[in-house]
Amino acid sequence: MKKVLMFIASSSPVQFIVNIVIYAFYAAVLGASLAPSIAVIVWGVHQFLLNLPADYLYLGLQILYFALSCGVAFYLYMMWGSFFMGLLIRILSIGMKPGTYPAVSLTTLRWIIYSGIFTIVVRTILPITVMSFFCKLFFRLLGCKIGKNVYINSPSLNDAKFLEIGDDSVIGGGADITCHTFEGGRLTLGRIKIGKSSVIGARAYIFPNVTIGDRCSIGVDTIIRKNRVIPDKSMVGIPAGIPLKAVAKFEKEQWGE
Predict the structure, then answer these.
(1) Among candidates 210, 206, 171, which has minimal Cα distance to 191?
(2) What would the pLDDT profile of 87-131 be if each residue is shown by its tens digit?
């Protein structure tokens, strides 16, 4: 398998063909996710748009009914698409464990494929379902461990299989919790644990291999770099306007580096 992957990585024509196959797979996944919605739209066309009446009042009602059927179709896509694509991501991530993997490896290839499916959900469904039961259901389907009374206001919980969120915690709008890095031609997957009653501020960015304790507050736009342990009851934030060198100096003093 390694020789096959190395051959693919070293050949541009083969990469082109593989990309076509992968995007064709994405198209098939999207089509299967849209199947119930398309069925409703086709039914709406036959029911309301064929043989439209000449009477303007009835014509308006028929168009309204068809528009409502399109709304139902969109609703079905959100529900069925979340379940179907979430299930595919869960299947593709079976057996994956925290660790570092070469760029040319079966694990990295699987990660690339399921990340593409996740991007479809992030762009088309999750922005609408954040802060809802369905959002948490989707991430639980991926393998994320979510406690009681958790509020998630961000779709960007990447590689949620490796994420744990404690009871009564809040993920702020636009926060990016990423359980992977890709550096030096190697993919690293790492766990992130957020304790109970903690708040992750809007647009915060959390790298892998991070543990945030109970009752912590991570400020808006704050970056928590990889391999950190944030003690219980900590308040972490970077005030606006501080030069990068000052931030680096602060981090060295804070973390004893």
Answers:
(1) 210
(2) 999 999 999 999 999 988 999 999 999 999 999 999 999 999 999
Strands 145-146 and 176-178: unpaired
How far is the C-alpha of 18 from the C-alpha of 11, rounded, in Å?
11
Partnered with residue 210 across adjacent β-strands are 192
In contact, 179 and 210? CB cutoff 8 Å: no
- Residue 244 CA to residue 238 CA, distance in Å, equals 10
- The whole domain housing 55 covers 2-255
Closest CA to 53 of 64, 61, 45: 61
Using DSSP's 3-state secondary structure scheme, residue 165 falls into strand
Q: Answer yes or no: are the C-beta atoms of 154 and 135 closer than 8 Å.
A: no
Find the CATH number of the domain harbouring 108: 2.160.10.10
**53 vs 250: CA distance, rounded Å:** 73
Stated pTM of the model: 0.87
N residues, the chain: 257
Q: How far apart are CA 181 and CA 40, in angstroms?
A: 41
Cα 17–Cα 19–Cα 10 angle in degrees, nearest 5: 70
**Structural domains in the chain (count):** 1
Q: Look up residue 99 and give its two tokens.
A: 């660790």
Residue pointed to by tokens 């139902």: 72
